[in-house]
Write a structure and sequence with these properties.
Blueprint (H helix, E strand, L loop, with lengths): L7 E4 L5 E4 L16 E4 L5 H9 L3 E2 L8 E3 L16 H10 L2 E4 L3 H10 L13 H12 L3 E8 L2 E11 L2 E9 L4 H7 L11
Antiparallel strand pairs: 1-2, 3-5, 4-5, 6-7, 7-8, 8-9
Helix pairs in contact: 3-4
Length: 197
């Protein structure tokens, strides 16, 4: 990976200050085919991941590949004040009796996301053991968060991602019951503390 300018500083729940070195090329150098491939190699250390996300770069690779870093164009950005929750989903949310929790079962959410049926008949996931460990470490730093949907004490859906400043980078979601991941997504706005909006 190439060197570059510094990434600034990122603060977690326990307020550890991480000075970040930028190992990535500028995102304008990302390939158009495959769309967004920017760099290969490196590591999944917290400072590397935080530097990547702070620039709109994320890792995505299969377990036997080198780490691939992506910054596709265009990039989907949803503003929380522009998300429309349909009447039918609001109705489901009122009637299902499910509860939303935040950061109560982070590793369980990531594990479920890793095991979810991809729908294309393929087995496997991009959420490798090393990725799981890396995101758990980011969770312990107060940067990675999960939203859990529970039916009683049973986890039926959820999502996880990183929260940097006012931006939540959704990584993956799962659903064991119809609409559970949609309800987690609708609850994502609450993951951003009011003081950061």
């Amino acid at each position: 990976m190439h060197g570059g300018a510094g990434c600034g500083k990122v603060f977690g729940r326990a307020r550890p200050e991480l000075s970040l070195y930028n190992p990535f090329p500028h995102t304008s150098q990302a390939l158009t085919e495959p769309n967004g491939l920017l760099a290969t190699g490196g590591d999944l250390q917290p400072a590397t991941l935080l530097c990547a996300y702070s620039q709109g770069i994320f890792p995505w690779f299969e377990s036997d590949d080198e780490i691939l870093w992506w910054s596709p164009d265009p990039r989907l950005v949803l503003r929380s004040d522009q998300i429309h929750i349909s009447r039918s989903l609001k109705k489901v949310a009122r009637r299902c009796g499910w509860d939303l929790r935040y950061d109560a079962a982070f590793s369980d959410v990531v594990t479920h996301c890793a095991r979810v049926d991809r729908g294309d008949g393929e087995l496997g996931t991009w959420i490798t053991r090393n990725m799981l460990r890396a995101y758990i470490e980011l969770h312990e730093l107060g940067v990675a968060h999960s939203i859990e949907v529970l039916d009683g004490e049973r986890l039926v859906g959820g999502l996880y991602g990183l929260l940097l400043d006012k931006v939540f980078f959704g990584e993956s979601m799962f659903s064991l019951e119809p609409n559970a991941s949609k309800i987690a997504f609708a609850g994502a706005e609450q993951a951003v503390p009011r003081s950061r909006r």
